[in-house]
Give the backbone structure.
Amino acid sequence: MFESLTGRFNGVFDRLRGRGRLSDSDVDAALREVRLALLEADVNVGVAKAFLARVKERALSSEVSQSLTPGQQVVKIVHDELITTLGREPSRLNPASSPPQVILMVGLQGSGKTTTAAKLAHRLNTGGKRPLLVAADLQRPAAIDQLETLGQRIDVPVHVERGGRPARLVKAAIKRARSDGHDVVIVDTAGRLQVDAALMAELGDVRKAADPDEILLVVDAMTGQDAVNVASGFLDQIDLTGLVFSKLDGDARGGAAISAREVTGRPIKFAGVGEGIGDLEVFHPERMASRILGMGDVMTLIEKAEATWDQAEAEAAAEKMLTASFTLEDFLQQFQQIRKMGPLDQLLGMLPGAASANLDVDVSDKDLSQVEAIIRSMTPGERRNPKTIDGSRKRRIASGSGTTPQDVNRLLKQFTETQKMMKAFAGGRNPIPGLPIPGQRRPTKKKR
């Protein structure tokens, strides 16, 4: 969601890096462009002003003027101050004063609150907790049905009472949690406007009944500047302990996420980064700042890989690559593991420098689905030995995958080239000039 902001920042920083010395006018010109980039990204005006004041103070100090690489130093300052704006350290859930830990989910209707409650329950469940979901949104019967469906998917029980009052329902749910051994209670409340006095009074009753350890406001990142107004409005009515941004993977410009923490003084605890039930991440300010500045997010990429890849399968695949016995069946298996990690554009965005590399790569998730369809349309024998695929087989595979024989040809050619490269490495030869072979020493020049 930060693509345009990242692009603008990279343009500014590229010009700064090329200068051996920075004058006051250079810094002012750069900060003017940074200011425009922030405002275009829907960053709150007050937040942008405070951010730029901190950057300017440090950029005009001896910290930069005495540096051997002043341009790089300014980039570091912007990075540091962006982390400060986003909250410095990741914020964890508050521990329970006495079991069970009660988490109250609040927000506007349509903000993704019910789905986020289920995602949080799934995250805690896979982490060894025993959560209980509570369908306290009695204003919208569909929300109760939705939560029950999600609860079944993630194997988490849902406390439901379709009649009565939300406060009484919450008390009964907490009593059930204690008797059934649940250590976390996640309450999905009704969506409400912060200016609706009656509904906010009802929320106050629910809060009193629940005595929650956490009150998390779910904010739709797509709402832009208004997201900050919503957060401030709820904060005036109820003592929020943290924020959760949903749809942070969408097409919004990202300013709300940058502004919210500084405007409300409350930490962003989680971020929804996809539609899948597992697409809820702990919000890491440092990692998010690095993504915004095009520096990538290698740690999150590693964590996704560790959570997705089977260690034994990965080692077996590596062994096959080293012995040049990697087949299309192996390729399909590894391909599926990569797709579990998330959309390709998100994964590429986590690579350092990917945003500014201008790589000539035009591969979408649709293209990857086409590749998978082609391989799945092959027989097991054809996957193990692609050389048996003649013209008639190519036509059959193309028909079965909804592609053309040319698409099948292209995939087979790419796979053949990859196999040749693997065989070259396995045989100790180097197919790419200048690229070192793993385990092989570089030749040293003889001294004259």
User: Anything to note?
Assistant: The first strand starts at residue 101 and ends at 107. Strands lie at 101-107, 131-136, 158-159, 184-189, 214-220, 242-246, 268-272, 280-282.
